[in-house]
Design goal:
binds pterin-6-yl-methyl-monophosphate, 8 strands, 10 helices, single chain, globular, alpha/beta
Amino acid sequence: MTQLWGIVNVTPDSFSDGGRYASVEAAITHGRELLAAGAHVLDIGGESTRPGSERVPVEVEQHRVIPVIEALAAEGATISIDTMNASTAAAAVRAGARYVNDVAGGLADPDMYAAVADSGADYVLGHWRGPSSDMYAQAHYTNVGAEVAAEVADRLAGAIAAGIAPERIVVDPGVGFAKTAEHNWALLRELNHVTGLGHRVLIGTSRKRFLTTALGDSTTEEQRDLATAVTSVLAAQAGAWAVRVHNVAASRDALAVARTWQGVIDD
Ligand code: PMM
């Protein structure tokens, strides 16, 4: 059964003056809602990686995410920490996280592989070519599926050499990271290169701008949830182990319909 990873962003709410308490409480509540909607894993992040985003100091990142991880892990949730920072990864695992989701695949922090190896957590290794502030400068490919898979294979070798057991590593081709919309669609069409690496594969398409190629430029992020649910089914059919989504209920239903179509009655 495809794993549903629900996204919990712990970032200050610009419309609220409640400060840290408000964003922590809101994130915990949101995490509970995603679990009720069927999320298997909550992916908790305190630093945006959207195109153009600036980095957040690690102290601020940890101040945001650690109380949320502690609270939700104590309630029995399976937690992933979405971070590019080794120290945040280590602190999050101490607080109860079971996965370290690193969109930079170890390239943003030279200590990441060692921190993950020591922590005992599973590792999501994302394809990345540079910081979000100028990621489009790196968006050059002739055969995106093969090139992404080759670069991920390189990172995999480094992670395994640093002591992370291969079966603990999930790979992610990094939809939207140093890729144009055309690259993202081609990458998804050629997912066999990445699934062929022999690891679990996680795909993150949720609400991303490239979906407007299909939907039209004027769609808001929330208006991309149905399209995201369709990509969840297509990703699952292409061999993905997990999808990372904002609207868990939409992808849960879409995946349930696809399973039923295929005659799989598993829940
Ligand atoms: N995308 C974002 C953040 N974290 N993690 C993984 N593993 N894969 C992704 O594609 C991914 C990620 C950016 O999206 P968001 O800002 O909507 O969370």
